[in-house]
Amino acid sequence: MSKTRRVFSIIGALFVIQGALILMLVPDMAFELIAIGIAVALTFSGIKYLVYYITHAQHMVGGKWFLLIGLILFDLGTFATLLIDQARAILIIYVAGAHLIGAILNIIRTVGNKKDGNPAWKIDLSQGIGNFAQVVLCLVFINHVSIPVYIYCIGSIYTAILMIVSACKKTAIVYVQ
Questions:
Q1: 49-84 tens-digit pLDDT
Q2: Rounded distance, CA 163 to CA 177, Å?
């Protein structure tokens, strides 16, 4: 990671922490703001993958995966846009579904990194445990009004802290012969 990328990563993480703390102060309004943010982020991520497929990935081996991912993300984003008035449902679905998938992927990445002897397996394991804890907490406190907002914000702060840690960590340069 270059020095400028490290700086931008730390600045972005600090903005995420600040935004999460502000959302925790107004949990009633936070439902709609988070739902709009999720809908916009999913839609633009889908568009980004679709544009990447059209411009580059259609000529690559396995490039159709970018088309599939782009279509799924764009579809989820437009679906979430239609449900903005159901902000609580979007937040619970997002927190439970996305963090469960993230936890599974982080655990798989942990196993692979540990098998390869990569010391980054500890950060992947902590991210996986944090994601799984968010899923459990969201399902346990599903009937409370503001608990999903707090879970989402704490998860965002946790992820931002891990971004700062990984930005400050030295990376090894691997030379291929």
A1: 999 999 988 888 888 888 888 898 898 888 878 877
A2: 31
